[in-house]
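input
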Amino acid sequence: MKKLLLILTLFISLLFTGCEKQDSANNIIVIVQYKTLQHKNVDAITGLKKLLEQVKKEDHFINLRLHVDQKDNSNVLLYEEWDDELYYKNQHLKTEHMQRFIVESQAFLDGPPEITFWKVNAVYK
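output
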């Protein structure tokens, strides 16, 4: 009986793990590139981290990575993963925290970001 229960538990866990990997292929990758004002890169990172604490609580958010260019710290890149492109393009951009960031970021960003959308084609590990 214990063996049967163990096998059943293992099968169910593998089933859910497999579904999770399959679903991630349908997620949207969003690349957001910012340019900070001269000598405002620390303020920009601080402002972005404050924003991202709110963003990660949103529906359809999967994960996000904040990158800073090693050669030019005024270049900041966000690598975002979401499970719903329409949500990102509509509700996410209209959230109170995003609207507040757009206004506040004028003090440390050199204009609006460049935003591009990507789909996973293949994964190698």
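quick obs: The helical segments are 2-24, 41-55, 85-94, 96-104.
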